[in-house]
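Record 1 of the preview.
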Amino acid sequence: MSELQTLLEQIESTFGIRICVHDVSGITFTVRSLELPYLWKTHGGTYCTQAKNAISEQSCMHQKEIALYVLQRNGGKPYCGICRMGVCDYIEPVKLDGRLIAVIFASGVIYEKLDDARNRLEKELTRHRADPGLLEDYACFAEHALTTEARLRFFAVLVRDQILHAAQGSSHRVVPAQDKYPVESVRTWRSGMSAILVNYLEENYRKHITLKMLSQRFLISEGHIDRLVRKEVHMGAISYLKHLRLESASKALVQTEKHIYEIGEEVGYNEPNYFCRIFKASYGMTPLEYRDRYSSMHKESKNVQNVL
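->
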């Protein structure tokens, strides 16, 4: 566990404040003391995860895009806002030599703004016709994350300073992004943003993903996303997404007895006919034909292994 992750976990366990480090330069991959799992680079806390399930992850990411746009419009000055799901965020940019390398989101529920935050949540749940039970989850979250704007700002600056200290003292070259929100052309290297993008696809290929959504999430132009992923896996982002889905589907076809449509849904294809069509185009046979041909071979191989 890196020094930065240790700090973030201590802040959350002691004060209930969740810190998200939105990496736009690959620094959490290139500086060892700043390495972070994906959930600490997005709003991955328990309540935010429940909120995403209630109104869709895409809707939450759109709010994050708006927050970063506001940050740009106010000249990159830190500010505090409330998202539609009732979470108060203090947003602090991290700049190295005047160039953006990350954005800190310090999240909690500000005592003075609790009523306003809850009203926004209620309106959003009504608009999405979401489960009102989320209000109970929010009440539990607010109980542990109740704080002040000054405290959110304190921890955002604390994390910012630790990132800058590690970046300045590192022997690794940190390549800042252009100081734009969203970033249109991130100059980075293979072990940085390329790895972030590929890891995200490998962890989330079952979800609905488009180039536009990736661009909004990582603040990089669609064309540059394709170039970065291609450097890592020798194919574009959407082609690699398709590869991951069909590879997972082919394994499920021979290793399980699940229905074809069920396997298609599990790997991200909700339309059975489209799943069968795209599978046949890649493998030269339908999913059912693939299962008939290879499932018996898999069983025989497994029996041999058991005997040995």
